[in-house]
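Honest question from a wet-lab person: if I give you the sequences of every part of a complex, can you actually get the arrangement of the whole thing, not just the pieces? Trying it with mine:
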Amino acid sequence: MRTTVPIIIAFLSGLVMVLAFFFNPEKSTIGRFEPEVLSWVTIVGGFTLLLGVVSIVRVNYGAVQRRSPNWGYKLATVISVFVMALPAMLPTRWSPLFGTGPGSIYDWLFNYVDAPMMSTMFAMLAFYIASAAFRAFRARNAEATLLLVTATLVMLWRVPMGEALLQNIHHDLPGLINTYIMGGANMAVQRGIIIGAALGAAAMSLRIMLGIERTYMGH
Amino acid sequence: MTKTALARTTLLLVILAVSFSSWATAQTEAASAFRSERINALVLVVVFSTVILIYTRWARLGKKLFIRKINGLDEVEEAVGRATEMGRAVLFIPGIQEIDNIQTIAGISILGRVARITARYETPLRVPVPYPMVLAAGQEVVEQAYIAEGKADSYNKDIVRYVAGEQFAFTATVNGMMMRERPATNIYMGAFYAESLLLAETGNAAGSIQIAGTAEAAQLPFFIAACDYTLMGEELYAASAYLSHEPLLLGGLKGQDWIKVVLVTAIVVGVALVSLGWGDWYISIFQSV
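Yes, you can. This is the full assembly:
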């Protein structure tokens, strides 16, 4: 029962989604199923949010109680969860600080704490790219040297000053990089990977729909 | 069934599918509920499904199927063994997407295999997830793995934990875990975006062995630069079948390879026809809306 029912649900849901792709949503019932099923995914996701809150509180509050190393950070996490969530859930008629609208506590925390912290994390990517590129572009052998030369040319081509420099060497060099490296070798490899991945995804979906693949249920 | 018989069956199926498509187009023009412009996709779905089912049937009948070696997956057990020897944890991240993303499902499937190995060796396992639905699925898979290995007592609900729903909040939390706990092995399997390099470089700095797998083509160079092994595209979806060694699952992989041969042939024929200036009708077959 624990296996059969999920397999039947997976089969029917998958079948509906596949059939819906081939039918017009305005003119057929099956075509209208797709947005309906996706709405249900959102609804179920909303209910499971409580699981996430329980998990985050249990893990972090437990660490605070045990005074495990770095418990201060865990306490900050638990406090942040409630400081962000509780005012957002309270009705706006009680106070303009509640809810999620402009001027609310949630809005202020999002704009002035959450968003800058996320931007900071994203901005740090530049330094990580530099360190990864330094390691990847070391000319240890013929292939790595080829990668180094190609990457240097592409990086130069991507910035106006580099493009001007390349044009000084040969007026058509930026165009050749675009045609043969980015539009040729790079594009061919990317498409090969994408086609393979799409086939893999389709094959896995089929295995799940037919109940052949049950590993996602722990079997 | 021999390969010739398979080729004949496929040819027959293609003829049947094309005939059906012509019939369906005629029937549905009046009703117009059926999207006849997508008939080529339907033909491909029918042929693809049939080939996969034929190979699965072969596997069920006990036919030996050769699957090429995937180094990254062969190293999973060794990497967990290293963590066991060092007395450190294995960190597994099943991507940063919801459970409705097929890459996340592939990641969860691989998690089940990895959890069986960590349960066997009694190696600590950490699985931070960004969505509650992934949390529920991950907990179920890990629990089943521990039960299957006879280590139900070692299972702890907090092995799989929800950390944050925001992309970079999740990244910051996991990077913090990597630097504080210094896991011996990091395994990234699923859909990753801008955070891929932030995670993999931090793991590299922490001195962990790293195995990654994603179907996001744009993130592959980052994983290749920062990880010891990387599964590219379709290898991610093949991983659960490869690790399980179950003939039924391996049969699906063989079918997928056969379709790839068909598609490569179609591309070569298309390139030849277009180069000769006779390709317009051929392109129209493959165009879809």
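Two things worth pointing out. Residues 101 and 118 of chain A are 21 Å apart (CA to CA). The helical segments of chain A are 4-21, 29-65, 71-89, 105-123, 125-136, 142-158, 160-169, 173-209.
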